[in-house]
Amino acid sequence: MDNNIARRIIDDVLDFVEKHGASYADVRLYLDDQGESLSVKNEVVESASIGSESGAGVRVLKNGSWGFASFSDLSRPESICRHELFAAAREALALAETSSRLRSFPLELAPLGNVPLVANYETSYSVDPFSVPISEKIALLKDACAALNDASGKIAVRTSELTSGRFTKMWAAFERGLPQRRYITQTFRSCAFELFVLAIDGDEVQERSFGHGGIAHAGGLEFIHTLNVQDLATQLRSEAHELLTAPECEPGMADIIILPHHLGLHVHETGHAFEGDRLLGYEQTYVGGTFINEIIADIGSYPFGSEAVNIVAEATFPGGYGTFAFDDEGVPAQSFHLVEQGIIKNVLTSRETVQQINRRIGRNYFTQSNGTMRAASYTRMPLIRMTNISLLPGNVTLSDLIGRLDRGLLLEGTQSWSMSEDRKNFDFGVQYAREIRNGKIGRVVRNAGYTGNNLAFWRSCEAIAGENEAYMLNVPNCGKGMPGQSMSTGHRTSPALFRNVEVFNRKQRGGS
Amino acid sequence: MRGKTETLDILSCVVKEARRLGLDAEAIWSSYREATMRSAWGEVHQTPTADAGILEFRLRRGFRAARISVAESNQKAISAAVKRCSEMLSEVPENPYLPDLLHPPTDFPEEIGNLQGVPEFPDDLTVKERAFAHVKRSARGTQLVGSGRFFTAGCEMGVANTAGLARYHTASYSFLSLVVTGAHGLSSYADRASTSPEGVDVDAVIDEAFARAARAQQLPFFDPFSDGKGARRYDSVFTHYAVGEWLYWLSMFIFNGLSVFEGESFLSGYRIGDRITGDRFSMRDDWTHPGVIPLPFDLEGATRSVLPLVERGIFRGIPCDGMTAKKSGMKSTGHSLFGSWGAVPFCVVVDGGNDTFETLVAQSVTPTIVGTYFNYPSLPDLREAVFTATTRHGTFLVEDGKYKAVCPPLRLRMRSFEALERIDGMTPPRLIRGQENYGMFYPISLVVPAMRLSDVNFVGSNPTI
């Protein structure tokens, strides 16, 4: 759909809902959502697929309650799209009216502050993945897949994948009391490169891969040129072999150093606890609440972690899957501390949750939304979502961290993850672990996992390596909400040392 | 949703365009209409609806194949998509595992009962409003508060290809879940499903969730791990909800035909006919079972077979899709997801026993844990089928057949198939529907009993701060 036509229809719909009693409404048009996925398994191209999608969603606040409706396919004639959008608006108004009868207090939106009326944003990139011939990308993947193999016959499954995405979102809103409407257009780009090996020797099965959904980047295909694909493949293959014959990880209490390809996921799972909607019970019927509820009254002073721990929400940091210019309420992207030198300072908020959270805290701690409302598609309402939730680097090196340990473990690669509904109890299986003895890296051990209480975990963080060893783990599939929404988030971390953590054997060998 | 005629027209358009270019094609149309009402601590906060359709097709020339998915379904858009996809085709190497195109089925009637009409729920908002008002009334005068989710959806699916196959089916689904939270922060849970919103037993959901929450309020609080002594074993009674979560994870990852073939699954180490559990356990994939979401064919258009998986502890079968069949020499069982994710059972039916839930609880002479729900499960190791989760929505300590205390959520970690050797009792099975819906309707159903298991390994608790 042409942008001018889209703008005209949006304005007409906003006129309509305003006339029918809405105090606020926003319209999101996904104009051209493009995706491409190429997958090679055991040197065979098993999947080459492309996709495109378009659609629109209308969110209306009337009588202090939300209504939301959506439809797909903006490739149809203007008259049909106009009809569909008005139908969605009428349905959203009706849903809001019904909802309002089931609320005892109206939702109120926190003030916006000084925001632009019109804005545009695009993820920076230099190589458009959609302009690179598919044959070229397949050749890269086939080479990578072949490099994962060897003559041992033990690398049973080897996979290389490349996924690319691009979508443009046009957002517009009116709000009673504000003199003018707002219009924001944002285009997002992402690429991910994934390598995976499954090694089998008799009954022993071991996996190795990078990241959580691969090495991923908000931008274009240029990131692939920064990788030495052959070296990465060789590393995974050789580590998988090591694991097949490695001794078992012994359960017990241990000092551990976690590397960024896994630590980012631990930060991710912790980050969920900071979501303001979970604090208010919005996710009770699915993903759960948060243990922050138990400490929220002491926000600003409660010791969440050790002094080494600085956790930030950094939606403005380049390269992250949680990077944007405006959230889906038109609030500008921000960077702020959730935890500063160990003290909890913030939670993730939206315009409707600010006042409710202040009531839970017992004082006016928040004045404005910190800009974290995002929807996964035009069919979904925006929710509070993590942006780039990152553990800020410290000022030592990984070598320094290793040198501090007489006995310990170095952990890397996510195998499994499980959290309690309030995000306090965690349980992670990892792919690859090495012993540390007398300040030096020792032998590989297999089937390691670690578990415990998240507050105790973050309080046990002794030191974090510096900026030079930081890595942004981008997560493409964070699930939340009902109906479900799969969202992209980013998590920048550096290697970090944690003392006295419970380690287990994830195959249940040698104890629990 | 478009209905049968329009859906088959859309698919036919792809087939004709492909033929015009001298190509083979398989096309899938999936569309859904869904509506949710959700409340938090008694206040409705979301009422989203969605209406969307996706056309996905695979063009083939010999062993070369390329796929495309589009939200557009008009002739012009389909022609453009076929052209784009065909251009891609020339750049894609051959895939020797490409499944054969299926011919129209002779083994199954195309029309099945009343399952071809597009479901509509004109009154679902009224039903939901009434249900949420009922929840509010039930909480009045108590220290309890309800958070609910009432979801209704209808979906249609059509599959066609250039070999002349054309199949269409619809399904509908309504689901109410309720979490009741007490002043102490501990929660309770209940859910019920039906094919229509009017069919959902709202009273049963409210009665069950509030009764469990009231029990939690009346009991003293006890954390078994407060002694700091680490992992320990308890006999346990798990509700239908908990058993459903556990078996859902086993279905997706351990009974996944691709995972078995590639050697990653626990079942990779066994042959059909081997004993894998105790003889009380029998499980099958059965889309014809009353109450499950009945999709009679898979995304390749193959008739979905009723598939015994475990019979009285004996390994009997594994689901298979076209590509896994080509790789392994097995036959497709009609469980394709049209992708690289393998083949999974979607309609899991487990034989139950004759005990009531309270009988299972009453059998607890030694300290026993009663768990209502499993939160955020995971399989730390697929080859050993190790399962972990924390309990949620009501964890109780029972002794001498009586509820003694309410516990915080507890983490368990167990080898699943060893645990299935230690089933001491079961209730009759009950329908549990899959709950996760990430943008398209997946017809997942489980019919499972509540179970009493001996000697379950608990490794920690989740105490309050």
TrEMBL record, chain B:
> Which GO annotations describe the biological process of this protein?
proteolysis
Q: Where is the Metalloprotease TldD/E C-terminal domain?
A: 232-459
Extract the Pfam families matched here: PmbA_TldD_3rd
Show the stretches that span the lipid bilayer.
Answer: none
Gene Ontology MF annotations: metallopeptidase activity
Question: Would you tell me the protein name for this molecule?
Answer: Metalloprotease TldD/E C-terminal domain-containing protein
Q: What is the lineage of its organism?
A: Bacteria, Candidatus Terryibacteriota
